[in-house]
Design a protein that fits this description.
α7 (about 185-210) packs parallel to α10, α7 runs parallel beside α12 (about 295-310) and α12 (about 295-310) packs antiparallel against α13. The longest helix has 28 residues, at about 185-210. The mean pLDDT is about 95. This protein folds into two domains: about 35-180, Rossmann fold (3-Layer(aba) Sandwich), CATH 3.40.50.1970; about 185-385, Dehydroquinate synthase-like - alpha domain (Dehydroquinate synthase-like, alpha domain). With about 400 residues, the chain is an alpha/beta fold. The chain has helices at about 10, 40-45, 60-75, 95-105, 120-130, 175-180, 185-210, 215-230, 235, 240-260, 270-285, 295-310, 325-335, 345-355, 365-370, 375-385, and strands spanning about 15-20, 25, 30-35, 55-60, 80-85, 110-115, 135-140, 150-155, 160-165, 170-175. The protein is globular and about 65 Å long. The chain has a six-stranded parallel β-sheet, sandwiched between helices. Strands 1-2 form a two-stranded antiparallel ribbon. It has a two-stranded antiparallel ribbon with strand order 8-9. A hairpin with a 2-residue loop joins β8 (about 150-155) and β9. Helix content is about 50%, strand content about 15%. The protein binds zinc ion (ZN) (2 copies).
Length: about 400
């Protein structure tokens, strides 16, 4: 048996582990690097593809931040570059329109897709890379989400958020100066997403105990390590230092690797993500703006922990519930809303989301547990009463 819970991301890559959970875990990412001057190695890293065309996918913002510079550099080194820059008046959405836009830039000479951005750009490129069997790599422009190293792309199809298990990037590259340039609101949001792991892990433990669902302690401990590292530097996060941006990125990579090693998002996503997806889909359906993913997950994680606390009497013996007060106080440390009302979510929408979010995907969480025990409606009423 091989333990990987203490390894650094680069020690995990290019290996496979016979795990105590009975499964073999492996992750086919070749390189993860975000030190100073990392991007100066890009021409050499892409060398196997120099005879093909490199399709760079960026958005208006990320192209200006770093894409243009990288494109010029690669051209100087003899690469044939093609650009797909997605422009929108609002944030780019990973929907059919964006997918189509990237697809129309692919042609028979495209040998590599170079994604320049964070969440959405990565999700689009990961999906298209898998479907067209064209390798891709990501230049991360912000420590904004943990999907870089995972194998899942959440996309919006017919207005609904659907997670596709697709594949991995060849590499994840960035530099500290780029990462710490991320706006404060994005850092806050990602902190919320990381806090969400506390309830995600509780949900996995709950399902393992109640339903005997398969569980991997190594992957869980990897995620827990990531969360604790971020919590430990919560105070420093908002000061815009390179150190803390890099620490945040370390945590996101670890959590993403846990998902990648496990093969799906179970280690890092539970009821808090289902609630957040429910709110997001409601906003998309109505054409309204919504808060950033991580802001919603942070609040939903607080809500989920409150739900756990309300049913301590019927949880399995010795079950350790997530600490709602701790989550709430950490949210306030980074000056983030801790309640759905603070995100502009209406009372009705909130009440409905507690009742229906569990149908978003087939994954057992505290919400399913409440339902099984006939407590879902009462808890929805009580939480709504408490939070509004
Ligand atoms: Zn998330
Ligand atoms: Zn395992």
């Amino acid at each position: 048996m091989e333990s990987f819970r203490h390894l650094s991301p680069n020690e995990i890559l290019n290996r496979s582990f016979e795990c105590s959970c009975g499964r073999k875990h492996t992750i086919p990412i070749e390189r993860i690097e975000y030190q100073r001057n990392t991007l100066s190695h890009l021409p050499q890293i892409l060398n196997p593809f120099i005879k093909t065309e490199i399709l760079m996918v960026a958005d208006g913002n990320t192209y200006g931040v770093i894409g243009e510079r990288i494109g010029q550099k690669l051209s100087e080194h003899g690469y044939t570059m093609k650009l797909c820059c997605i422009h929108r008046d609002h944030d780019v959405v990973p929907d059919e329109r964006s997918l189509g836009e990237v697809m129309t830039h692919l042609d028979e000479n495209t040998g590599f897709i170079l994604a320049v951005g964070s969440g959405v750009i990565n999700d689009l490129c990961r999906y298209i890379s898998a479907r067209t069997k064209t390798p891709y790599g990501i230049i991360a422009t912000a420590p904004s989400m943990d999907g870089y190293a995972s194998s899942v792309s959440p996309l919006i199809v017919h207005g609904k958020k659907i997670s596709f298990i697709v594949g991995y990037p060849r590499f994840i590259l960035s530099e500290p100066e780029i990462l710490c340039d991320a706006p404060e609101i994005m850092i806050q949001a990602v902190f919320g997403d990381v806090l969400g792991k506390l309830t995600a892990l509780a949900d996995w433990n709950l399902s393992a105990q109640i339903n005997g669902e398969h569980r991997c302690k190594e992957c869980m401990l990897l995620v827990e390590r990531a969360v604790q590292a971020v919590i430990a530097c919560a105070d420093l996060l908002m000061q815009g230092q390179e150190d803390s941006a890099v620490k945040l990125m370390d945590a996101l990579i670890l959590s993403g690797l846990a998902m990648g090693l496990y093969g799906n998002s179970r280690p890092a996503s539970g009821a808090e993500h289902h609630l957040s997806h429910y709110w997001e889909m409601d906003a998309l359906a109505k054409g309204h703006e919504h808060a950033l993913h991580g802001n919603m997950v942070g609040v939903a994680s607080h809500v989920t922990a409150l739900a756990y606390q309300k049913v301590i009497d019927i949880l399995p013996e010795g079950f350790i519930s997530p600490d709602a007060q701790e989550i709430q106080s950490l949210l306030s440390t980074v000056r983030m809303p801790d309640s759905p009302a603070g995100l502009g979510i209406s009372k009705d929408l909130f009440h409905n989301s507690i009742l229906k979010a569990m149908y978003i995907r087939d994954r057992y969480t505290i919400l399913g547990f409440l339902d099984d025990n006939g407590r879902l409606e009462t808890i929805a009423d009580e939480l709504t009463e408490y939070l509004y």
